[in-house]
Structure to design on (747 residues):
């Protein structure tokens, strides 16, 4: 069989890389994570004239330094996996900045093909690019494409195929100037003679990176024999150079690169005097204006909420009914075959009920991801971050973190998944940690039930109060965690505002589908397992009544109850209900129903015998704060990739819930509200 | 005279002279086309909050703190 061609897609964010990826591979793609990392890895393949071509979408980066996980991933892939061809997607409208990455790719010794994207738009805005000239200057093929329309894609594929067989050698692209070049050669020689560098690293590149103080390369060299000696020599050379230039070597290197790019662009690009940003600028006049900025933002957020939850509700009910129907009929069917009752209970309560309780959220999640994709692809999300930056600074986070916080009011699972839009890992983890304090919609039924029983006159106010307490606690916890764990590590807030673009339906649907699919598969498998486990606890030891005090679950509840007694509700039913609530918060009410043997309507009366107004509020506080639900915990684990942070999220919320409820309840007793 | 970018008025076009920051921010800005010697147009600059600038052919948002470290004339 013929060898497949491996192609890596590289490029800046917002250049249409995913669009090209979709145009190339269609639906034949696989989304996973880079090994050991939490960055999305997209892979797909297609056939061209009988040849199998595998495409890997590298994370979007501006550069190939070692400053972010994305850059390290992209670089390592190119260096170590040696893809046959690296297709660098370049935004034709912003060619100068984009070529900065091209230069680095070429220096890395990759076989590069430049895909000049959005040429039509660029021409409309008066930017004319002579791709033949550009190709000659850069020494790599340049193909004009329009990824969203599919034009030029076939030509690109042909170029990639013919390029893949070319002999590869590292090109001397940029002359860094006499002085710098001399020192680079000196270090290169030293690297080649003294070090046993893994062969996939070009030695000149290593020399340059050492001068640039690239963290990863320095670490690599440190670990090698003679490494310390070489590093000392590099240090000497750098000091000398810095004296000569009067600036650090990095700046000199960047200057040389930009100098080269400027030259190439001057030769190959013709600009007619029109301002390409004019449309975007005009829209921003309104969207970011002092008067309309915030109202428009609020309107967009309201729409996002309404569409996600209102439009999704009928489908949620439909799925819910579908599962109930399925559960009942399955139970009936299994009993009719003469199988023991526990089998039918396992299937209908455990499996169907459990999986159903998670899958009902699917319409909301699908819509939410669709809306996020729409905001992201159109360019508005970056504007929202800009508008919210001032507010979020109070917690030590940037504007971008605002979006996941807001989504948390709907459901923490997609909210935590939405933190993927944050580039900085530390900001991302902090945002994830405080996200469960945004009271999700699953907690609302608990508030509604308890307030209708104990605060019928000010139901609305009390519920609003609970949401506000959640936000307040999120701010406090955010400030504390920032001080404790992320001290001084705040990432600089530098972000590109992409021009407004009309997203294509296909790319929106593909984005939405691949994210939703992950939710079904991953959340589904973990939740499925735990649901079965809990079902067993409710039925063991053999012969007990389902979910009674004698079951293991009831026994556990009886054991936990004393811990909850100082909070005002020491009955075992509360303990069990809250434990069940870990699976999904909406289950709390259902559990009370089962345990007290009454339907929801009767529950209001029964609860009055077990709670006072004070302990009811205390219970709601616990329901608000204590432990993120299982789906959320699973998502936190998946998104942070760390048990440590997941453990912290669970631990702090349990402690915080207990402390807040304790202070509230005991304080209330002291003040005589009991 | 050198002054921080944050002190520039909306609509002004300024020349970046010095970036007084750690390597990390400097590199990041460089990748986005903002380095010593580039001219920058201030698109939006309010009394507080981030500053919006135009560099090469793209618009960037810089945090207040970052824009104080960039000296321009």
């Amino acid at each position: 069989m013929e060898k497949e061609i491996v192609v890596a897609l590289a490029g800046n964010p917002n250049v249409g890389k995913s669009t090209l990826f979709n145009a190339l591979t269609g639906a034949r793609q696989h989304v996973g994570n880079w090994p050991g990392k939490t960055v999305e890895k997209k892979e797909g393949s297609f056939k061209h004239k009988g040849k199998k071509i595998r495409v890997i979408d590298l994370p979007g980066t501006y550069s190939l330094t070692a400053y972010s996980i994305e850059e390290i991933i992209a670089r390592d892939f190119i260096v170590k996996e040696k893809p046959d061809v690296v297709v660098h997607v370049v935004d034709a409208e912003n060619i100068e900045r984009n070529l900065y990455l091209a230069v680095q790719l070429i220096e890395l010794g990759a076989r590069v093909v430049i895909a000049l994207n959005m040429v039509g738009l660029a021409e409309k805005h008066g930017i004319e690019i002579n791709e033949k000239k550009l190709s000659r200057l850069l020494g790599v093929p340049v193909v004009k494409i329009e990824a969203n329309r599919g034009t030029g894609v076939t030509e690109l594929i042909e170029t990639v195929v013919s390029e893949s067989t070319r002999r590869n050698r590292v090109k001397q692209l940029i002359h860094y100037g006499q002085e710098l070049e001399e020192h680079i050669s000196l270090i290169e020689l030293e690297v080649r003679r003294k070090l046993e560098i893994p062969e996939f690293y070009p030695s000149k590149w290593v020399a340059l990176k050492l001068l640039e103080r690239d963290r990863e390369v320095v670490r690599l060299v440190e670990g090698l024999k003679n490494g310390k000696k070489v590093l000392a020599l590099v240090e000497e050379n750098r000091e000398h150079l810095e004296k000569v230039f009067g600036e650090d070597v990095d700046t000199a290197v960047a200057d040389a690169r930009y100098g080269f790019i400027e030259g190439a662009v001057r030769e190959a690009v013709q600009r007619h005097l029109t301002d390409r940003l004019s449309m975007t600028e005009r829209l921003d006049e309104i969207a970011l204006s002092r008067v309309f900025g915030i109202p428009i933002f609020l309107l967009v957020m309201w729409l996002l909420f309404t569409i996600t939850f209102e439009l999704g509700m009928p489908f949620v009910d439909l799925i819910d009914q579908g599962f109930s129907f399925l559960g009942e009929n399955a139970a009936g069917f299994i009993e009719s075959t003469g199988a023991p009752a526990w089998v039918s209970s396992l299937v209908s309560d455990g499996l169907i009920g459990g999986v159903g309780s998670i899958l009902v959220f699917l319409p909301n999640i699908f819509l939410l991801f669709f809306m996020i994709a729409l905001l992201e692809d159109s360019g508005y999300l970056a504007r929202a971050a800009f508008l919210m930056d001032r507010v979020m600074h109070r917690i030590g986070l940037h504007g971008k973190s605002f979006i996941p916080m807001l989504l948390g009011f709907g459901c923490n699972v997609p909210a935590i998944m939405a933190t993927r839009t944050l580039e900085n890992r530390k900001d991302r983890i902090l945002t994830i940690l405080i996200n469960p304090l945004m009271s999700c919609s699953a907690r609302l039924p608990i508030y509604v039930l308890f307030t209708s029983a104990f605060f019928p006159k000010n139901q609305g106010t009390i519920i609003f109060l609970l949401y506000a307490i959640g936000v307040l606690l999120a701010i406090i916890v955010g400030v504390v965690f920032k001080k404790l764990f992320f001290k001084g590590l705040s990432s600089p807030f530098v972000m590109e505002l992409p021009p407004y673009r009309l997203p294509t339906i296909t790319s929106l649907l593909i984005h939405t589908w691949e994210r939703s699919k992950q939710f079904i598969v991953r959340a589904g498998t973990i939740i499925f397992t735990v649901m079965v486990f809990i079902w067993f606890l409710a039925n063991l030891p053999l012969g007990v009544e389902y979910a009674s005090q004698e079951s293991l679950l009831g026994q556990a509840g009886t054991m936990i109850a004393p811990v909850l007694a100082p909070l005002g509700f020491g009955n075992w039913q509360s303990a069990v209900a809250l434990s069940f609530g870990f699976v999904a918060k909406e289950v709390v009410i259902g559990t009370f129903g089962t345990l007290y043997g009454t339907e929801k309507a009767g529950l209001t009366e029964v609860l009055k015998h077990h709670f006072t107004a004070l302990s009811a509020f205390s219970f709601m506080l616990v329901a608000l704060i204590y432990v993120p639900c299982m789906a959320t915990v699973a998502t936190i684990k998946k998104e942070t990739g760390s048990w440590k942070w997941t453990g912290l999220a669970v631990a702090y919320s349990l402690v915080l819930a207990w402390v807040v409820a304790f202070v509230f309840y005991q304080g209330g007793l002291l003040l005589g509200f009991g | 005279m050198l002054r921080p970018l944050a002190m520039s008025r909306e609509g002004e076009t300024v020349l970046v002279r010095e970036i007084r920051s750690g390597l990390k921010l400097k590199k990041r800005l460089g990748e986005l086309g903002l380095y010593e010697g580039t001219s920058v147009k201030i698109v939006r600059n309010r009394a507080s909050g981030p500053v919006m600038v135009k560099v090469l052919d793209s618009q960037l948002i810089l945090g207040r703190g970052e824009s104080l470290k960039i000296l321009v004339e």
